[in-house]
Design a protein that fits this description.
Chain lengths: 331, 367
């Protein structure tokens, strides 16, 4: 009896000690947590607060006094009717829909070429990665020069067309978008290439050989051996580039400043203009929040898709069962 | 069902010659081991059969037709990789079915075939498992089954038993022999383990530094090695190689082993070998198992040696003998006791002896 009581006492002492320790741990983590709240939560809450007022820096009222012009959700109802914003959203999505798949396909093609070794591989490899290293603003400037009416691209087209080409790329409502997309694709294909090459290199060579020896052709090897192993890498690359492309700004700003008119105006560019040209900070705050929520939903969707694809519950169950049986056998 | 022939097969990697003018015929339905130390060119040879490597020179013929230009996926060669190369993202079923699926066979046919092979490999209760969860032993069987299902005419196995635990290796050795008999295919099998090669193969090709040293049955290679390399590589402990000089006394040839004494040659074959020797410096090869140890006698029949130490290895005892610089091993029964025999005479049965040229290590007096 006394022995079991001693044990119980010891257990209780241990429990209280654990409680103590946990308390101390929490206390020590508190400064970091406060800092995190300050860095993340404070700006967000401030943005939410400002977005429900008419506040502007021109008012001469400090931001915390913004409640004086409280308007509930007037900014949000304006936002829904703002055709220029929806135009910017549409154009941004267009850039994503065109550029990300183009970057993906080009990157995948290049990565497939670079899995095997060939003479001069390292030189080509370095050259291919260059665009990614160039500062985006410089990329914009480069393509700004290339696409001038008297620029090299028109000269090149002239050579093939057999006469001087005078395409006004950056001042044409439709062509400006094409020029911008080409610059985007040029800049970010290397990143896709890099990620996909890493994924491709991770496919075991022996398995590829085994598949070949079993009679699988290149197409079958790609779909049955390479793709299943690349799925996660591909999803990561696509999500990364999609989220980045939704924020596209620098190249556009240098090449067209969103022009001609609003023909190449993206969400970021529109927000920039409303902030620094119109100084409508409260309205911009509401757009910012709206985009944040939309992007979060998109990212969440992507992650959900990824998790659902990579772990099928039934498979996990059999895997565990299999492991347990193998263990038994080993014993 | 194919005969494999190599004609002057050569593979160079830069300045390194991995396989050097290999000429060899592997008969249909035989089980052949390519045996040799690491870097002897055995794996390169196998990769050339499969088409993973392209020969620098020479021909590979399957049933008389050159296949060097035939692409890897049309050679009809089954290959079991050393690491098995299981498609770990697929189920066991899909692994087995892969070769048939890529050929576009009807589902019912695939299903029947997979069931049949799974039963042969005793994997029938594992079919819906993710293949990554199999034990190493099961992976081995899966790898063999996956290759066997497409009925290749030639089956290649790269060190198939080296990853297995000792207990399962014994089992798999007999299993492999059964499988080969059931599949009735030409099997070529790469190993560096001479015991594996001896116990499994019908024929063994011993290779060293890209050059074929000897090709023959395990018994032949064991008792009649073609050179000192094969003599050393096969058998554990390996053949005693005793440097000696040929001398003549009247009509008799003698082998002079320095301080260990001289042996008068009485066997005809050995005498012929001694007469064929281009120089007096030769090497006498004798298996430790065949040496007779008797109490010291003053005859010219054996070597006068001192017992250095005894090494009991389960059923047998290895006796280390010495005289001056000459060290000789003898393998005796475990009951062999030499407490009273500090000094012995080792008599090599001359019919089981081989004489090698000391300069190039080749056997003297023909095969």
């Amino acid at each position: 009896m006394s022995a079991s009581r001693k044990e119980r006492d010891a257990a209780a002492a241990k429990l209280s000690l654990e409680k103590e320790q946990r308390k101390l741990g929490n206390l020590m983590a508190l400064p970091a947590q406060l800092l995190l709240v300050f860095i993340v939560a404070f700006p967000l809450l401030m943005q939410l607060y400002v977005s429900t007022t008419w506040w502007s820096p021109l008012d001469g009222v400090p931001w915390y006094m913004a409640y004086e012009s409280w308007n509930w959700f007037a900014n949000y109802s304006d936002l829904v009717q703002d055709s220029r914003l929806w135009g910017a959203i549409w154009r941004t999505l267009l850039i994503v829909i065109v550029c990300v798949p183009a970057q993906f396909l080009l990157g995948l093609g290049l990565a497939t070429l670079f899995v095997d070794s060939f003479p001069g591989k390292t030189i080509f490899y370095t050259l291919l990665l260059m665009p990614m290293m160039v500062v985006p603003a410089v990329v914009g400037y480069m393509f700004f020069l290339l696409f001038q009416q008297s620029g090299p691209i028109n000269d090149l087209i002239g050579v093939f067309a057999g006469g001087p080409a005078e395409i006004n790329w950056l001042n044409d409502v439709n062509l400006a978008m094409v020029a911008v997309m080409i610059a985007e694709i040029w800049e970010w294909t290397p990143l896709m290439f890099l990620i996909l090459l890493a994924g491709l290199s991770g496919v075991p060579e022996d398995q590829m050989r085994a598949a070949r020896l079993l009679g699988a052709n290149a197409w079958q090897r790609f779909w049955r051996i390479v793709m299943p192993r690349m799925k996660t890498v591909i999803i990561i690359a696509l999500v990364l580039r999609t989220v980045e492309s939704l924020k596209v700004f620098d190249t556009l700003f240098i090449m067209t400043v969103g022009g001609p008119g609003v023909a190449t105006e993206s969400i970021s560019l529109y927000i920039y203009k409303r902030t620094f040209q119109d100084l409508e900070w409260s309205y911009v705050a509401s757009i910012g929040l709206f985009v944040l929520v939309a992007l979060s939903l998109l990212a969440g969707l992507g992650i959900w898709f990824m998790v659902r694809k990579s772990t099928k519950p039934a498979q996990v169950a059999t895997a565990q069962q299999g492991g347990a049986l193998a263990l038994q056998e080993a014993k | 069902m194919a005969k494999i022939e190599f004609k002057g097969l050569t593979k160079r990697f830069g300045s390194l010659t991995a396989v050097d003018h290999l000429n060899l015929t592997i008969p249909d339905k035989s089980f052949v081991a390519l045996l040799g130390p690491s870097g002897c060119g055995k794996s390169t040879t196998m990769n050339m059969i499969a088409g993973i490597e392209e020969p620098s020179d020479g021909q590979i013929l399957f049933d008389g037709s050159d296949i060097v230009r035939v692409p890897i996926d049309r050679r009809g060669v089954g290959y079991v990789f050393q690491n098995y190369a299981i498609f770990t993202h697929m189920s066991v079923y899909d692994n087995l079915a892969f070769g048939l699926q890529v050929r576009g066979l009807p589902k019912a046919q695939i299903n029947a075939k997979v069931q049949q092979v799974a039963e042969l490999m005793r994997l029938e209760d594992r079919l819906d498992w993710p293949s990554g969860t199999l034990s190493v032993n099961e992976m081995q069987k899966l790898a063999i089954g996956r290759s066997a299902i497409v009925e290749p005419s030639i089956f290649l196995l790269d060190e198939p038993l080296s990853n297995l635990d000792a207990a399962f290796r014994e089992f798999m050795r007999t299993e492999l022999k059964h499988i080969q008999r059931q599949l009735e295919q030409t099997m070529v099998y790469v190993t560096h383990d001479q015991i594996e090669a001896m116990s499994l193969a019908d024929h063994i090709a011993v290779m060293n530094r890209g050059v074929l040293q000897q090709y023959g049955t395990p018994a032949d290679i064991y008792s009649r090695p073609a050179n000192t390399f094969v003599a050393m590589f096969i058998g554990s402990p390996s053949m005693n190689l005793i440097p000696c000089q040929i001398t003549t006394e009247g009509e008799t040839e003698l082998l002079d082993v320095g301080s260990a004494g001289r042996i008068a040659i009485t066997d005809d074959a050995l005498r012929q070998a001694a007469r064929a020797a281009p120089s007096r410096d030769v090497i006498l090869g004798v298996r430790p198992e065949v040496l007779d140890l008797v109490p010291r006698a003053a005859t010219g029949l054996g070597l006068q040696l001192e017992v250095d130490l005894l090494e009991p290895i389960g059923p047998r005892t290895v006796v280390h003998l010495r005289s001056g610089d000459t060290e000789i091993l003898a393998v005796k029964d475990k009951r062999y006791g030499t407490q009273e025999l500090e000094a012995v005479t080792a008599i090599p049965p001359q019919a089981a002896c081989r004489l090698f040229d000391r300069r190039d290590g080749r056997v003297l007096g023909g095969a």
